[in-house]
Amino acid sequence: MYDEILLPTDGSGGMKRVTEHALGLAELCGATIHALYVVDETAYETVPEDARHQVRDTLQEDGKSATKSIASRAEVRGIESKEEVRWGDPAVAIIAYAVRNDIDLIVMGTRGKTGFERYLLGSVAEKVLRVSPVPVVTVHLSDPEELVAEIEELLERNYE
Q1: pLDDT tens for each residue of 20-78
Q2: Which residues, at least 6 apart from 23, have a Cβ–Cβ distance to it below 8 Å?
Q3: What Rg do the C-alpha atoms of the chain give, in angstroms?
Q4: Cα separation values, 19 from 6, 44, 118, Å
Q5: Residue ranges of the alpha helices (H) in the chain?
Q6: What is the C-alpha separation between 104 and 14, in angstroms, rounded?
Q7: For the domain 4-158, what is the CATH code?
Q8: Strands 81-88 and 105-110
Q9: Residue 17 burial class via C-beta count within 10 angstroms: exposed 0-12, middle 13-18, buried 19 and up
Q10: pLDDT score of 156
């Protein structure tokens, strides 16, 4: 069903859960994992001109490190993988990569921000969900036990 699975990463620690989910799906389907890191160019543009070269190299290396980490975990499990670092708007780059590489499924993390915080910061996952012609699975980056506790607290406050 899924032959090509795209796993966008920001290299954060929370990506471990997302990666495990994507690798599990890849194992079940015999799929290839595409690890993609997108450097947000709008953030890069705010870097002073004299520091841009060094910052660009650092960001490129961060991306290579993040995708290599996923590829290494895939290799241990016998899963074929591809690595890519791109520059641009993350949501646009993720969707473009998916379309151009015949991706069957995108598995990505979400922080689950809501309300004003999401409005201010935006959400790459939300943008991808809304626009992608490819199915998207989101995995919350937080610890599941913390999420359950938050949900139980909300239920107690709102449904007593």
Answers
A1: 999 999 999 999 999 999 998 887 778 888 888 888 899 999 999 999 999 999 999 99
A2: 33, 73, 74, 77, 79
A3: 17
A4: 10, 26, 23
A5: 15-29, 41-44, 52-76, 90-100, 115-121, 124-131, 144-158
A6: 23
A7: 3.40.50.620
A8: unpaired
A9: middle
A10: 79
